[in-house]
Amino acid sequence: MRARWLTQPIAALVAAIVAVMGCAGCTETRVIRSHTPLAGLPGAEGGLQVGSKLDGYIDPTATPGGRNFILYEDGSVELIAKTGDQLLKHLSGVVRTRNSELFTQQLLSERTKQEFAERGLEPSLAFEMLVEREADFRAMRARMPLGEKTPGVVMRKLGKRAYRVQTVGLAARDLAWTGYDMIFEGGSWRLRWFVG
């Protein structure tokens, strides 16, 4: 009787071990998707499979080759501003290089050009006004390094395809220009003018 009492638990233990061993070949596969902030960087590795619920999604702010300009064989350039921040980068570039032609032809909105023409003024005068107030522009730009995505910056709709991007609160203190108005024309954001 005593031997039977000892062998039953051992038999049960052996049966449990065999059952576990038999299930060792059974595995469950789960796909966990995560889109971490650094996942898109070259060489980024992680323990999770990187993916998105929006596989196949095309970012409307993406530009050809990740650049915000197209350089043509004849040496001409087309500036692309799919975001307010890209528009500010282009404005910084034309002010730095004093390129009034690119500013007037590709960055200044048609509506603003029309207003200048209605007053009997050349649109190139807008560039001269910007250069005269370069310090105000640079101070505003410094407070919104990420354009409309900068914390403390708000973007308000003004009308059809027109928005105001403006620094608010303490970040706007002491600024002559606190933001800018932009309008979507010809597939790109164009400068309406600055606000303060």
Instruction: Count every helix, treating DSSP H or I runs of 4 or more residues as helices.
Output: 6
**Cα end-to-end separation:** 98 Å
Helix/strand class:
alpha+beta
Low-confidence stretches: none
Q: Major β-sheet, in short?
A: 4 strands, antiparallel
Number of E strands: 8
Q: What's the arrangement of strands in the largest beta sheet?
A: 5-6-7-8
Helix content estimate: 25-40%
| Subunit arrangement of the protein | single chain
Which overall shape is indicated by the principal axes computed on the Cα atoms?
Answer: elongated
Account of the protein in words:
The protein has helices spanning 2-23, 84-97, 100-107, 110-118, 124-132, 134-143; strands spanning 33-34, 49-50, 69-71, 77-79, 153-159, 162-167, 179-185, 188-195. The protein has 196 residues and is an alpha+beta fold. Helix 2 (84-97) packs antiparallel against helix 3 and helix 3 (100-107) packs across helix 5. The N and C termini lie far apart (98 Å).
Itemize the secondary structure elements and their pairings.
Blueprint: H1 2-23, E1 33-34, E2 49-50, E3 69-71, E4 77-79, H2 84-97, H3 100-107, H4 110-118, H5 124-132, H6 134-143, E5 153-159, E6 162-167, E7 179-185, E8 188-195
Parallel strand pairs: 1-2
Antiparallel strand pairs: 3-4, 5-6, 6-7, 7-8
